[in-house]
Specification:
With about 450 residues, the chain is an alpha/beta fold. The protein has helices spanning about 80-90, 95-115, 135-150, 180-195, 215-230, 245-255, 255-265, 280-290, 300-305, 310-315, 335-350, 360-380, 410-420, and strands spanning about 10-15, 20-30, 35-40, 45-50, 55-60, 115-120, 155-160, 200-205, 205-210, 235-240, 270-275, 295, 320-325, 395, 425-430, 430-435. Strands 3-2-1-4-14-15-16 form a seven-stranded mixed beta sheet, covered by helices on one side. Strands 5, 6, 7, 8 and 9 form a five-stranded parallel beta sheet that branches. Helix 3 (about 135-150) links the parallel strand 6 (about 115-120) and strand 7. Helix 2 (about 95-115) runs parallel beside helix 3. The longest helix has 18 residues, at about 95-115. Bound molecules: zinc ion.
């Protein structure tokens, strides 16, 4: 329903607000898709259970092509690094058109599973059309077009990737399509921010790929550019995913990766560290102190055999975290959070691995925390049903057998520990429905 001021309303029997569940609630949404008020519903509600859309804080769209193609092992030592070789050949074959079509299918699939924002960590700057100087811009714009055509909100993070390993090793031939000179990279950022057609759903951030792929001077140039032109833009970086990477960093810099990053660049709360699987206790504590978000990608980390992130300790100490689909082996936020909780239960041999009280289900608490981490990592007004946030919403079905006769808290737990996308009946971004499955 649209009133004379151009506002429309959505109401639900139950809504998950930042402080928990509320009954009979109504939202007013303006023409830009922002929530302008949240209050009691006056008329019978339209929707059953409404939760904030989830933020996918780490995706490489093109890696969706690898799903099912990397599960045959030719050598006993097959690991992350051998998976990476297979990923290189997939990236080398990408064109602007294949990247657009693949991302469009992927983002539609993500939306149907309840992701409403994606932080796309984009380093496929162009391979087969490398003789075209415009190709890095066209490759990035293909992702923006995919986001706009599906209604998926996007923080596009063009990636700086310049070396094959610590110590300024030159890029290997199969990595060259990722490589950009620092000045070309910064111009790409400026072009995407100032000249490319962008919808209100989209924003641009920075992403040095990792400490092994970008040297100190280049990261410094990125940070200086950000300070001069977009001081609040998010910065994302892969870090400490593999033990080998930690050991190589210690050899090169005599410091562990997170320790070195913290000392060299003094990152603040607009940084998001992807994986950070292998941290020492002092590294973890410093990260929490600086309110830096950790981006966890449980299904990809499991698939690649990365290791366990100590989430229960991180949460108990006040850490901020969110989830990402990373290689896009799985695009279901419920499954990501489920796996993460189960990792903690298995390793601690407890059911209540997070030692939470019983006022809300673990599912609801973890869901809200992942939304908060995603909000901070994306730098966007998302992940909360509250005044001033975007009306990015997920509606749980009122006639799915799994959710029948349950409280909203139990219904969300049923989705988390047993559900799939069939529990979702509608998804909104900017207050506009993006799918109808019922
Ligand atoms: Zn990644």
């Amino acid at each position: 329903m649209i009133d004379s001021a151009g506002l429309h309303t959505l109401s639900a029997e139950w809504m998950l607000l930042p402080n928990g569940w509320h009954q009979h609630m109504e939202l007013s949404i303006d023409k830009d898709g922002l929530i302008v008020s949240v209050g009691p519903a006056i008329t019978p509600p339209d929707l059953p259970i409404c939760i904030p859309g989830m933020i996918n804080l780490h995706s490489h769209a093109f890696q969706r092509h690898l799903v099912g193609r990397t599960q045959r092992f030719s050598r006993p030592e097959d690991d992350f690094w051998s998976w990476r070789s297979r990923m290189y050949s997939e990236a080398a074959a990408l064109t602007t058109d294949s990247q657009f079509k693949g991302a469009q299918r992927l983002y539609a699939d993500m939306l149907s599973h309840g992701y409403t924002t994606v932080c796309e960590f984009h380093y496929t700057h162009g391979a087969v059309q490398r003789d075209n100087a415009e190709i890095p811009v066209l490759m990035a714009e293909s992702l923006l077009r995919a986001s706009e055509s599906t209604g998926m909100r996007m923080m596009l993070l063009p990636v700086l990737y310049q070396q094959a390993g610590f110590g300024e090793q030159p890029l290997a031939p199969e990595q060259r399509s990722f490589g950009l000179d620092t000045q070309v990279y910064l111009r790409l950022i400026e072009h995407l921010r100032d000249e490319s057609p962008r919808s209100p759903l989209q924003s641009i951030g920075y992403a040095p790929h990792s400490l092994r792929a970008v040297g100190l001077d280049s990261i410094r140039a990125v940070i200086d550019h950000r300070a001069d032109t977009a001081p609040h833009a998010p910065v994302h970086i892969h870090i400490a995913e593999q033990v080998r990477e930690v050991n190589e960093c210690i050899l090169a810099h005599r410091k562990r990766p997170v320790e070195w990053l913290l000392d060299a660049f003094e990152p603040d709360s607009s940084w998001c560290l992807i994986h950070a699987t292998h941290m020492s206790d002092p590294e973890r504590r410093q990260l929490i102190e600086r309110q830096i978000t950790v981006g966890l990608c449980p299904t990809t980390e499991a698939d690649l055999g990365d290791g366990f992130f100590p989430l229960s300790r991180f949460i108990s100490e006040g850490g901020t975290w969110g989830i990402g689909s990373d290689s896009n082996l799985c695009v279901d936020p419920f499954q990501e959070i489920r796996l993460m909780d189960w990792q903690q239960r298995l390793s601690s041999r407890r059911r209540n691995a997070f030692k939470m009280d019983a006022l809300l289900s673990v599912a609801t608490r973890l869901y809200l925390q992942a939304c908060e981490g995603g909000r901070r990592a994306s730098g966007m007004a998302v992940g909360r049903i509250e005044e001033g946030s975007s009306a990015d919403l997920v509606v749980l079905s009122d006639h799915h057998p799994l959710l029948d006769a349950r409280t909203p808290d139990d219904a969300l737990a049923a989705c988390m520990y047993s559900g799939d996308k069939s529990v979702i009946s509608q998804v909104y971004t900017s207050g506009r429905p993006r799918l109808q499955t019922t």
